[in-house]
């Protein structure tokens, strides 16, 4: 991004952490400019720029959580040392809608939120928070069946451009969130996600692999998750399941899209 009339690029980095259930990031420091991504409770970010009126921050979410403008009033400042501690400390990721009590107030957590299981005073979830819900250690990577089971929890979630929660998802964010809950870090945007992992032929696809579809001129622009047993999950107005035959090149999405290849994201 180049410097424009909306922002002032920072010479020294600032750091923050999301303490809200959901924090939306926008294309421009203007209300209604469109959502680029969203941050979930416990996710950290780096502040890269400030709007001229000081009312908006441009932030880059850690671990491919996405980038965009957030209202300065929603910023929660932490030091670089604390930022590093959070990102190097083992944590749990919520697998269900959960509730914690933090500083005397209840906060609802959406699936994919971070709970830091350390002894630090900010997020000592075992001793300073009442936690009600389900979570799993991020460090314990689930297998292919686990990823499919996680994905099915998002069935019927509506489409939302830039959305990253049960309230709305688009294709790349759906799979980014599913794999995050399963213990993997993958990109949150289509352009980066299609370059991630190992490319394989559709005939060699396994449960948990991504299917990459292309348009009439072969440009990758749609994704689906192979669930096994001839089924795939995709976002068509909402998260839904449909049939998939690896031998057929045109299927599933519509006649406008054809299967280009598949992606194995489990290799490290």
Proportion in β-strands: 35-45%
Mean pLDDT: 89
- Strand-pairing-aware structural class: mainly beta
Number of helices: 4
By CATH's scheme, which homologous superfamily of the largest domain applies? endopeptidase domain like (from Nostoc punctiforme)
Helix percentage: 10-25%
Number of E strands: 21
Largest sheet: 6 strands, antiparallel
Q: For the largest sheet, list the strands in their spatial order.
A: 16-21-17-18-19-20
Distance between the termini: 30 Å
Family: Belongs to the peptidase C40 family.
Domain NlpC/P60: 141-268
Keywords: Hydrolase, Protease, Thiol protease
Pfam family, one: NLPC_P60
Write structural notes for this entry.
Helix 2 crosses helix 3 (171-181). The protein is built from four helices and 21 strands. A hairpin with a 4-residue loop joins strand 5 (56-61) and strand 6 (66-71). Strands 16-21-17-18-19-20 form a six-stranded antiparallel sheet, with helices on one face. The protein has helices spanning 80-88, 144-152, 171-181, 190-193; strands at residues 7-17, 22-26, 35-40, 44-51, 56-61, 66-71, 77-78, 91-94, 98-102, 105-109, 114-116, 130-132, 135-137, 164-165, 168-169, 198-200, 210-214, 220-228, 231-235, 239-243, 258-264. The two termini are 30 Å apart. 12% of the residues lie in helices and 39% in strands. It has three domains: 7-80, SH3 type barrels, CATH 2.30.30.40; 91-137, no CATH class; 144-264, endopeptidase domain like (from Nostoc punctiforme) (endopeptidase fold (from Nostoc punctiforme), Alpha-Beta Complex), CATH 3.90.1720. By secondary structure, it is mainly beta.
């Amino acid at each position: 991004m180049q410097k424009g009339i909306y922002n002032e690029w920072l010479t020294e980095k600032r750091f923050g952490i999301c303490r809200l259930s959901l924090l939306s990031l926008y294309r421009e420091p203007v209300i209604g400019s469109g959502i680029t991504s969203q941050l979930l409770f416990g996710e950290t970010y780096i502040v890269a720029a400030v709007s001229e009126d000081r009312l908006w921050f441009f932030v880059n979410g850690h671990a491919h959580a996405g980038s965009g403008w957030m209202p300065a009033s929603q910023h929660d400042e932490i030091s670089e040392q604390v930022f590093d501690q959070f990102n190097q400390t083992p944590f749990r990721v919520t697998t269900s809608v959960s509730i914690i009590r933090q500083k005397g107030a209840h906060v609802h957590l959406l699936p994919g939120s971070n709970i830091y299981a350390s002894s630090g005073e900010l997020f000592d979830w075992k001793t300073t928070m009442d936690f009600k819900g389900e979570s799993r250690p991020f460090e314990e990577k689930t297998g292919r069946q686990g990823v499919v089971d996680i994905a099915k929890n998002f069935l019927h979630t509506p489409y939302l451009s830039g959305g990253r929660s049960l309230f709305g998802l688009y294709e790349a964010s759906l799979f980014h969130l599913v794999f995050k809950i399963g213990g993997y870090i993958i990109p949150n945007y289509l352009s980066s996600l299609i370059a991630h992992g190992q490319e394989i032929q559709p005939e060699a696809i396994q449960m948990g692999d991504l299917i990459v579809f292309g348009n009439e001129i072969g440009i990758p622009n749609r994704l689906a998750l192979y669930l096994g047993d001839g089924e795939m999950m995709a976002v068509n107005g909402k998260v839904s399941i449909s049939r998939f035959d690896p031998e057929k090149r045109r299927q599933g999405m519509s006649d406008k899209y054809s299967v280009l290849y598949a992606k194995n994201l489990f290799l490290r």
